[in-house]
Amino acid sequence: MFLAFDIMGKVAFGKDFDCLIEGREHPAIGGMDESMETINTIGQIPWLLYYLSRIPGATAGYTEFFKMCSDTIEKKLDPNRAEQRWQPDQAPSDIMSWLLKAFMEKDPSTPPSKEAFNEDSRVMIVGGSGTTATTLTTTLFYLIKNLAILHKALTQVDSALPGSEDWTYEKLKPPVLVGGSRVTPPNGLQVDERFIPGDVNVIVPIQLLHTDSRYWKQSKEFIPTIFSERQKELGISDAPFFPFQLGA
Q: Heme: present as a keyword of the record (predicted)?
């Protein structure tokens, strides 16, 4: 988590949060992490999450995180902080600087307000650090538990990238489509025998779906090649799959 958070600070804001150097979690992230267990549980009931968020003090864990994000935006615009400030006369070197540049140039695709910028900063931190850390941790855990797969992966990487000069440019081609709608269309949606009214949030238990033996053979095993060389063998071409938790 420390590494992912530091990298996202650099990529998003051009600022290192120094978690690795200090050897501790940033205070703003600690409170957010403590709240995630509750959110992951009651997040399956959207209306309950909405009401609980209105209880005074219920979102206290996020206060420091929200403040950190808004303060980072302020520092980007502060002329007295040259080391963190966005430089209009220079090419942007981080995501937020690009957004600020587009905003100053009145690009219609940019965030329309300060609060929108704050929201974007929160999305970048949560989406770029937490998910990255979780993915890396889970991948390393299963690779270490499955040494045969680890050695196979290392052999393939060494073969494809024998030297640092081969890392200059790499294409990203995901083996699966990663899009999907979060909300039903206004006129509703028919799913088999069930009709779902329009503008309704649909929540699906991802863990249960991805380990359902009706769709996934060997669902309890770690099979990194499930969507590539073993796809036909395992017969999962029509299996339901949500690549990004609740994002599909």
A: yes
